[in-house]
Amino acid sequence: MVCKNCNSLMPDGLDNCPKCGAAVNQQPEGYDPFAQNTPAQQYYNAPAGSGSINIGGKVYRLSYQMILPAVMVLFIIIGMFGAFSFKTAKLKFKTTWGGSSVTSDAVKYKFSDCTDADLGFSKFANGVCILCDVAAAAGLIYVGYTLMTTKNGVNGLRAMVIPTTAMLISFMFVIFNAFYIKGKMNSMLGFSDSVKAKGGPTFITWFFFAVFVASTAACRKFAEQVSARNLAEAGRSGGSGSYRL
Length: 245
Fold this sequence. Notes:
The chain has helices spanning about 40-45, 65-85, 110-115, 120-150, 155-190, 205-235, and strands at about 50-55, 60, 90-95, 100-105, 105-110, 195-200. By secondary structure, it is α+β, with helices and mostly antiparallel strands.
């Protein structure tokens, strides 16, 4: 049994709350029994272990599903500029003479190096990344619009899949370009047995690719989890449910 005045749990059958002393059948001032999302109900219905803060009399729950979109926005913005400004390909040249081999220091390349060298696929990949950046920017605007109009973080998580997918495709082509450069170098060397290009994408390229793979899957998964939790809360309360991201 829950005290409607202080939201404390109490044994059934008591006439007064042992914590605040309010009568069991006494309603707090301004209490609306038909309200589905009062601060008291929101706090009581919060999942176990979730943090909450009270701002202006309203209770907001803090969870990883709330923090995820903010972190993803940061990575998306960095990735949008990083695909062009980062050194995304790293090659080493191995030279073999008389049975002994010498490997040169790593040489790193970014898109501008490849397009300036008039490499066909690099220009194409560069164009794809530009389109992906535009799609990611549009996706972020849509995420903001969704959050402002629906005020529901679940919809925001679903919408976040658009920019994360765009950046996933962008870094996929960055990886393709790194291997293309390696193949182009070996082709220019005539596939010589004495000199070969080794390497491929840089660590930061693989890192951002992995981030966007994981974030795209995570946004879908967390949105489904919170939607299921909302439906469960709605079933228990007989209303629309009070758990909202």
